[in-house]
Specification:
Strand order of the largest sheet: 3-2-1-4-12-6-13
Distance between the termini: 47 Å
Shape: globular
Structural class: alpha/beta
Radius of gyration: 20 Å
Helix content: 25-40%
Number of helices: 10
Largest sheet: 7 strands, mixed
């Protein structure tokens, strides 16, 4: 019987323990520090990415490498990255697909720990110190910390949990561990701009879901780890500062301009995360989500932020996201086969 969306032959805890015993031994008694791969997935954020790469040099923890996966950027990102070619490992993703881009980074990561940070985020200098410290416990498969939202000038993501229907709470009551059990609803997850995993844990669950091109990729991967019996650990001192730069879905004032992927990804996630008996219920909730986005667009129109033409286009995109999500969400979550660590390719970031 499949568990938590994993293939029948897969046992997350079993795979993790066998690989740890064979490849690393007992982490509690090891002498050398764990190697970390910091992965940054980027698309058309040249200036923000450059600031992030410069800031990473201030990390107090060593050794770590930086892996940059550049999507089909057209803003000069590739040229800027040439200046970091002797310090970072530079990869390409052929399409604007965050789930796919993350898998490319994981596949080529040579570290035992794979830490993700956004291209518009800056970590505190001791970020990796606090992250790696939590992995000293052999049972811990994933670690995440709080995210300071620069536009709001406050920590916006603390203890994050989500329901099987994709309803998220970024400031849930403590303790974090109370949500970390197979089948929990809500279950814990980490914000995509501040999450770290044992590479072997990602390998065991089949990496990230490439169907989730934008949004819910972080929720989905944490759901699988949680349901597989892995320990997720919240590190309150591992802080990242997030600028929330403009993207294909939001403008410079942080207004959502295209709801398609928000609706699509939540729909796919909910259908793949729930039981077959709940699929009709999910379809009903999807209609409610579209209605919520309609209200959002109505408010933007009444405030003069978008035009009538943009409003109509917004509603069309929300509806399309629902239709496509309902169709694609009925398929099984893809299992990405992640190879062994390319240990000889580890390139310390200096």
């Amino acid at each position: 019987m499949a568990v938590g969306g994993l293939p029948e032959h897969t046992s997350t805890v079993g795979i993790l323990r066998r690989e740890f015993e064979r490849m690393m031994g007992n982490l509690r008694t090891r002498r050398s520090p764990m190697k970390v791969s910091v992965v940054i997935n980027t698309l058309n954020r040249c200036s923000h990415l450059e600031q992030a790469l410069i800031a990473l040099a201030d990390q107090t923890y060593r050794p770590f490498e930086v892996v940059v996966v550049n999507g089909p950027s057209v803003d000069g990102t590739a040229g800027m990255l040439e200046r970091f070619a002797d310090r970072a490992r530079l990869l390409d993703c052929p399409e604007a697909n965050l789930g796919l881009s993350r898998n490319i980074g994981v596949q080529q990561a040579a570290g035992e720990i794979v830490a993700f940070i956004d291209d518009d985020a800056i970590p505190e200098p001791d970020w990796l110190e606090h992250v790696v410290g939590e992995f000293a416990d052999l049972d811990v498969a994933a670690v995440g910390g709080p995210v300071f939202d620069l536009p709001l000038n406050r920590i916006e993501w603390k203890v994050c949990v989500a329901t099987r229907l994709g309803e998220a709470d970024t400031n849930a009551p403590m303790p974090f561990s109370s949500y970390n059990r197979p089948g929990a609803d809500p279950f814990p997850y980490f914000a995509g701009c501040n999450m770290s995993f044992r590479r072997s844990a990602l390998r065991a669950i089949g990496g990230f879901n490439p169907m989730l091109k934008f949004g819910y990729d972080d929720v989905d991967v944490c759901r699988l780890l949680n349901d597989g019996g892995s320990t997720l650990r919240y590190a309150p001192a591992a802080v990242v500062r997030h600028a929330r730069a403009p993207s294909a879905t939001r403008d410079a004032d942080h207004h959502v301009t295209d709801p398609y992927w928000w609706v699509y990804s939540r729909t796919v996630f909910a259908l793949q995360a729930g039981l077959r008996s709940e699929r009709e219920q999910v379809a009903t909730f999807v209609d409610d989500w579209v209605a919520e986005w309609r209200t959002y667009a109505d408010n933007l129109l009444s405030e003069g932020i978008i035009s009538a033409e943009m409003h109509e286009r917004f509603l069309e995109r929300a509806s399309s996201g629902a239709v496509d999500g309902k169709a694609d969400g009925l398929t099984q979550r893809p299992f990405q086969r992640v190879g062994r660590r390319p240990r000889g390719d580890f390139q310390p970031y200096i």
